[in-house]
Design a protein that fits this description.
The chain contains seven helices and nine strands, in the order H-E-E-H-E-H-E-E-H-E-H-E-E-H-E-H. With about 220 residues, the protein is α+β, with helices and mostly antiparallel strands. It folds into two domains: about 120 residues, CBS-domain, CATH 3.10.580; about 90 residues, Alpha-Beta Plaits. The strands form three sheets. Strands 7-8-6-9 form a four-stranded antiparallel beta sheet. Strands 3-4-5 form a three-stranded mixed beta sheet. Helix 3 crosses helix 4. The radius of gyration is 25 Å and the shape is elongated.
Length: about 220
């Protein structure tokens, strides 16, 4: 997969000489959160659709509102995860793309990037997802990988989903025919398994014991 294949050019970037009316009309026709502004093929910044719609004087040029410009962009060497982070940080659905000479060449659209991520092995529905946590001082990414692979499972990816002063929580995507063995191994290494799984024998045993105790107390 080449992420550059998803660079789009359908939406024409505006210039500071364009009027507020043109910008508002563009936003009316297209569901975009920001409008790229260029000058001599160089990105000046982006106007947010929310800001543009609040301007009452439609005939005035955009150059009068440069203080509203937002500064964010990416380049042709970006990664999929970096793009998703950029979209989230800037609360936008398009991100301008610059080439190695800092020329504006198009934009990425959020929907396309999420589709690419959803089609990746990391997000495939047939795979298992584990969420585990452990005290930060004892946590090791290499140990997580070793636990998964020592149980003949295939590690597809993982990321830190939550971090506090004392603990780290990670989401693990894996492919395994015996996910219960992976779960129990994590517990033996003092990880807390946060996600719930139908194949978790340990939880089934706890449920059986609880049912037995309840039955005993009711006698």
């Amino acid at each position: 997969m080449n992420i550059n294949d998803y660079i789009l050019k359908e939406i024409k970037a505006l210039t500071l000489d364009d009027t507020v009316y043109i910008a508002q009309d563009l936003c009316k026709d297209l569901p975009i959160t920001h409008i790229p502004i260029v000058e001599n093929n160089k990105l000046i910044g982006c106007f947010a659709e929310d800001d543009i719609q609040t301007i009452e004087n439609k005939e005035i040029s955009l150059k009068e509102y440069t203080y509203l410009l937002h500064q964010f962009h990416t380049n042709t060497k970006t990664t999929l995860l970096d793009l998703i982070t950029l979209f989230a940080e800037n609360d936008c659905n398009i991100i301008p793309v610059l080439d190695k000479n800092q020329n504006y060449i198009g934009y990425y659209e959020l929907r396309d990037i999420l589709d690419v991520f959803a089609d990746s092995p990391f997000m495939h529905q047939d795979n298992d997802t584990l969420i585990v946590s452990k005290p930060k001082l004892d946590f090791s990414m290499s140990q997580v990988s070793q636990i998964v692979e020592s149980n003949k499972a295939k590690l597809l990816g993982l990321y830190v989903s939550k971090e506090s002063r004392d603990t780290i929580e990670v989401v693990i995507k894996l492919s395994s025919n015996e996910v219960n063995e992976v779960i129990q191994t994590f517990r033996r290494y003092d990880y807390t398994v946060i996600s719930q799984h139908e194949d978790d024998i340990y939880l089934e045993e706890l449920k059986d014991r609880a049912d037995y105790l309840k039955k005993y107390l009711d006698m």
